[in-house]
Design a protein that fits this description.
177 residues, two-stranded antiparallel ribbon, alpha+beta, 22% strand, three-stranded antiparallel sheet
């Protein structure tokens, strides 16, 4: 059988068996026997165990921030093409999607630099809608997509920085919409 003890200055400890009287007498004055602590997150207050805030391992929280960042990036970039096309999602699920957008961006910038900013290019959306845009428009769309991704990255860094400063972090808050 285990026994719990508490002292205001020393905190809580447990004994794994009956504690002989001479040992108990050596405990600091003010030591009391208490029920076993229900969890490491409980604190002894006013004669009872009270659940305190759960302590989350910082490494687990950093991993959760990374997972939330990756989830948000994988949702894609929503762009308003205007007119009948309206808002469409441009996929950013994985490295292949992102490489495709970088290729389009480089091609569009090359065309604009060569004086062919009005050259038509195709963009395929998540809904498999093919949209014709000019090279100059593609450069602008890709810049907006990059800003969207950069905002998500910045939010993840801000959360990790707050964690490093010892601040309480809520990974559901502070993200780019």
């Amino acid at each position: 059988m285990e026994y719990g003890f508490y002292h205001p200055d020393r905190g809580y400890w447990q004994a794994t068996g009956e504690v002989p009287e001479d040992i108990r007498e050596s405990y600091p004055e003010g030591t009391i026997e208490v029920p076993l602590r229900p969890s490491p997150h409980h604190e002894w207050k006013d004669g009872e165990w009270v659940a305190g805030p759960a302590q989350i391992d910082p490494a687990q929280l950093r991993a959760a921030i990374d997972a939330e960042r990756d989830r948000r990036l994988a949702l894609g970039y929503r762009h308003d093409f205007g007119g009948d096309v309206g808002v469409q999602v441009l996929q950013t699920r994985d490295l292949t999607d992102r490489t495709n957008w970088l290729t389009l961006d480089a091609s569009a910038k090359t065309l604009v630099a060569a004086g062919h900013g009005d050259m038509p290019l195709s963009i395929r959306t998540e809904a498999n809608v093919v949209i014709q845009v000019t090279a100059a428009e593609a450069v602008s769309i890709m810049a907006a997509m990059a800003q969207h991704g950069a905002a998500i990255m910045a939010a993840s860094w801000a959360l990790k920085d707050a964690l490093e400063r010892g601040e309480e972090v809520d990974i559901t808050q502070g993200w780019h919409a």
